[in-house]
C-alpha cells in the first residue's frame, strides 16, 4: 500500500508557488526566509510586478541551497 505523500506532490511547495504568484515577497519569505533574496525581491517587485514574480517563482521552484 502506498502512502499519501508518495502519490501527491508536496502541497507545501505548491502553496509557496501560489503565494509567490499572488504576492512575490511573501513567497520568497516563506521559501528562503528574510534575507538577501527577500530584499532583492522587494526591489524587483517595486520596479515592476513581473520581475518580482519571476524571481519569486524561480526561487520557490529551486531547491534550497
Describe this structure in words.
- The chain has 65 residues and is mostly helical.
- The chain has one domain.
- It has helices at 4-7, 11-22, 24-32, 36-47, 49-61.
- The protein is globular, with a radius of gyration of 13 Å.
- The model is unreliable at 2-8 (pLDDT under 50).
Structural class: mainly alpha
Distance between the termini: 33 Å
Number of H- or I-type helical stretches: 5
Give helix and strand order, one letter per element, not per position: HHHHH
Give a quick summary of the entry.
It contains five helices and no strands.
Task: From the structure above, extract its key features.
65 residues; mainly alpha; 77% helix; 5 helices
SSE layout and pairing:
Blueprint: H1 4-7, H2 11-22, H3 24-32, H4 36-47, H5 49-61
